[in-house]
Design goal:
Elements (H helix, E strand, L loop, with lengths): L4 E5 L2 H10 L1 E8 L2 E8 L2 E7 L4 H15 L3 E10 L9 E9 L20 E3 L2 H21 L10 E8 L7 H10 L3 E5 L2 H11 L3 E9 L9 H23 L3
Parallel strand pairs: 1-4, 1-5, 5-10, 6-8, 8-9
Antiparallel strand pairs: 2-3, 3-4, 5-9, 6-7, 6-10
Bound molecules: adenine.
Adenine binds next to strand 5, strand 9 and strand 10.
């Protein structure tokens, strides 16, 4: 079990392909969750579903660390694009994570995590570098294999990911979030919670998100279909390449 890498996904559709690729799969249950142990690219992994939202994701991350002694956690999933130029089909790597619905003002500044003295958690630098290389290689390969699939090459972005217990699917609140956090690349519902747990335990963390929508009034359209046909295969491609490149 030593040196186990945890791959966390929010939804079953996102995990589906990874599970299919898992060698010597072994299923375990804990905290009402399924954990799949096995090998990807000859390396030990645990696959888990975070479920949706910050508390569910934090519980899953804590279980991975406490019960499975994982050495690092990678989150794969989808997100809504916030920054200009972060388009559907693009991939975002989080260098920093912030909980956009954290507000204990006036006791603490807006977005500051009470008693942590910080608003943002950082991705682990070495994990980020490996994931970045893997994502870039995957995107280049998939563009070469099927150039006609998209009119624009899919972009890889790196920067701030905002997380909160709200699906952003309406224009006005999303615009407010954009003005409040102009450097946020995308929004989702788990990353910053997992980042906080990993910070507490000193476990390296990084999240990779495929943009499924622009967090506007059309955000819900074809969401499941997108996850099945695009985000799932992206997760498999990027994680497989990542596992190949891992040392240690
Ligand atoms: N995950 C994917 N799209 C999202 C959105 N628009 N808001 C929150 N989480 C998301």
């Amino acid at each position: 079990m030593l040196h186990t890498t945890a791959i966390l996904s929010a939804l079953a559709e996102e995990q589906h392909g990874l599970l299919a690729a898992l060698r010597q799969p072994r299923r375990m249950e804990r905290a009402g969750r399924e954990f799949w142990l096995g090998e990807l690219q000859g390396r030990n992994v645990v696959l888990a579903l975070s479920k949706i939202g910050k508390v569910a994701a934090a519980t899953t991350a804590t279980t991975l660390i406490e019960r499975f002694a994982v050495r690092r956690i990678v989150f794969t999933g989808v997100a809504g694009g916030l920054a200009r130029g972060v388009q559907v089909g693009d991939v975002v790597l989080g260098t920093e994570y912030l909980q956009h619905d954290m507000d204990a003002s006036p006791l603490f500044p807006r977005h500051e995590i009470p008693l942590y003295g910080r608003k943002r958690f950082q991705a682990d630098a070495s994990l980020l570098a490996t994931l970045s290389g893997a994502a870039r290689a995957f995107l280049e390969r998939s563009a070469a294999i099927s150039p006609s699939q998209t009119s624009m090459p899919r972009q890889l972005h790196q920067g701030l990911i905002a997380s909160g217990d709200r699906f952003m699917g309406e224009h006005a609140p999303t615009q407010a979030l954009r003005s409040e956090l102009p450097d946020a690349l995308c929004v989702e519902m788990e990353g910053a919670a997992v980042a906080q747990v990993c910070f507490d335990y000193g476990v390296p963390f990084c999240a990779v998100r495929t943009i499924s929508d622009r967090a506007d009034d059309d955000a819900h359209v074809d969401f499941s279909q997108f996850i099945r046909s695009v985000a799932g295969p992206y997760a498999v491609g990027i994680v497989t390449e990542f596992m190949r490149r891992l040392d240690g």
